[in-house]
Amino acid sequence: MSVLALIPAHDEAANIAATVASLLGQTTPPDRVVVVADNCTDDTAAVADSAGATVFTTVGNTDRKAGALNQALGSMTDLPEHVLVMDADTTLAPRFVEAAVQRLGTDAGIAAIGGIFQGPQPTSLVETAQANEYARYARELGRTGRVMVLSGTATVFRRTTIEAVRAARGTTLPGIRGDFYRTNALTEDNEITLAVKTLGLTVESPRECVSTTELMPGFGPLHRQRLRWYRGAMEDLLTYGFTTATRRYWGQQAMLALGTLMMSLYLLLTVQGAVTGTLGLSPWWMLLGAVFWAEKLVTAWGAGPRGRLLAALLVPELVYDLFLQATLVRALLQTVRRREAVWHHDTSLTPLTTQGA
């Protein structure tokens, strides 16, 4: 079964060699690796070529990653059976492609295989908190099998899935007919997931399909990343409306809002009790806290010793959760006000290596 790998890259000279190497080192390497060099001002194209990839250079693209991928896909008259789309700051577990192709081969009803993302070894508290967050998602995915997103870090699509989405754009699906990705979506991976599910198609994430991607090094880059993620998810839901395919996502947003409200109420009551002198050690309050602590620790167990320690300390993760909730509120306000979104390409991130892939 033939596989084409597409890697959209904007100024990724520091990462692209490791990304290409992780593909060429697969137990079942792609038949062709294409780096889509988009408006690069560095040596991304030259480094990719030296690493063994074919380079496709976009022309006049103003639609960021989605536009770059649409250009590349549109230039190919005969797509292979499977197309892997992955980020340029990501490396793959050695059996990723093999496992994805095998699963697609055994079940014709699966439209795409999404990667289970994780970070490299964290070096700070904020990176460890992100690693714990990713570990919890992987645990939930393994427990329920419910894929919430065809991760932009790495996803393998059937050719027939790409053709179906392209044909449905402008009618059943929002967007321009002939495009695979909707170019005005803030989070193209979230939007393409909704598009595929709206067509009634099934997606999976096998446990072997692990992708390692960058962790945000500080709260500034993390805020910008999550602001785009949260707002993109909200805008996609407003575009698609409440349907059978989106109801679980609406429920997820409702639970996030409820969690934010409950955390705010908890802090308010705690501060009020401390100020008025009425704060006491109620057995029920202590039991609730113990259950919350245990849940944090158990669900972060897969993140390793560093992650378990952070979860056991509890307070740092509470601060992290409050930060994310504040970002969620800001994303909601921007969505309601229809404020123009701004994309950021963070150049402060540590270059990846093939280690840990």
Automatic annotation (TrEMBL):
CDD domains registered for this protein in UniProt: CESA_like (cd06423)
Pfam families tied to this protein: Glyco_tranf_2_3
Assigned keywords, A-Z: Glycosyltransferase, Transferase
GO molecular function: glycosyltransferase activity
UniProt keyword Ribosomal protein present: no
Keyword Nucleus: no
Family per record: Belongs to the glycosyltransferase 2 family.
Protein name: Cellulose synthase/poly-beta-1,6-N-acetylglucosamine synthase-like glycosyltransferase
